[in-house]
């Protein structure tokens, strides 16, 4: 069974930092691209960052570039998102995602709140 579990979400002040984790199981993690998405209340789910199988290639949404860093540890089957200089517009539920065998797989999400 494919298993995707996000963690690390919290409530932080503007300018603060968080590190999100996504632990996975049930597939060959090292052979697939992985993504972070986020969804704020009343808004569409948006792609935040993507990382290649070996971690060498990464892509970011314009709003995240320069502040967020996606990384992975293939030995631990775990994906990470380091978020720095957080802004109120970063508040959302963050989801880990993989396209696998013709289907989308999602975690349940982890909540991030940014407020003073």
What does this structure look like?
The structure is a single chain. The chain has 116 residues and is mostly beta strands. Helices cover 0% and strands 52% of the residues. The chain has no helices and eleven strands. It has strands at residues 3-7, 11-12, 18-25, 34-39, 46-51, 58-60, 68-73, 78-83, 92-100, 103-106, 110-114. The strands form two sheets. Strands 2, 4, 5, 6, 9, 10 and 11 form a seven-stranded mixed beta sheet that branches. A four-stranded antiparallel beta sheet has the order 1-3-8-7, with no helix packed on it. Strand 7 (68-73) and strand 8 (78-83) form a beta hairpin. It is globular and about 40 Å long. It starts with a strand and ends with a strand. The mean pLDDT is 97.
Secondary-structure topology with pairs:
Layout: E1 3-7, E2 11-12, E3 18-25, E4 34-39, E5 46-51, E6 58-60, E7 68-73, E8 78-83, E9 92-100, E10 103-106, E11 110-114
Parallel strand pairs: 2-11
Antiparallel strand pairs: 1-3, 3-8, 4-5, 4-9, 5-6, 7-8, 9-10, 9-11
- Gross morphology is globular
- What is the strand content? over 45%
- Rg: 13 Å
Helix content: under 10%
N-end to C-end Cα span: 40 Å
Largest sheet, described in full? 7 strands, mixed
Are there runs of 5+ residues with pLDDT below 50, and where? none
Q: Residue-averaged pLDDT, rounded?
A: 97
Helix-strand pattern, N to C? EEEEEEEEEEE
**With helices defined by DSSP (H or I, 4 residues minimum), what is the helix count?**
0
| Extended strand count | 11
Q: Structural class of the helix and strand makeup?
A: mainly beta
